[in-house]
Amino acid sequence: MRGVAMLSLCVKAGPVRQRGLGLIIIAVMLGMLLGVLDQAIVSTALPTIVSDLGGLRSCRGW
Questions:
Q1: Which residue has the higher pLDDT, 18 or 31?
Q2: What radius of gyration do the chain's Cα atoms show?
Q3: CA–CA separation, 26 vs 35, rounded Å?
Q4: Which of 15, 19, 27, 29 is the least buried, fewest Cβ under 10 Å from its Cβ?
Q5: Is 59 within 8 Å of 50 (Cβ atoms)?
Q6: Which of 59, 38, 41, 42 is nearest to 50 (CA)?
Q7: pTM for the whole thing?
Q8: What's the CA gap between 11 and 31, in Å, rounded?
């Protein structure tokens, strides 16, 4: 029943509320894009970082 009430609120929302929702969705998508780019860069560079630190033998603290 509560989901129906929320749906009716979303349907009644005007253009101002739709614009705010669009900005939120864009912000979330941009944040996800930055997270994916960061993961791609780190995972590509990780073998080089480990070898520069002397391999896995010197990284026992990890």
A1: 31
A2: 22
A3: 14
A4: 15
A5: yes
A6: 59
A7: 0.54
A8: 27
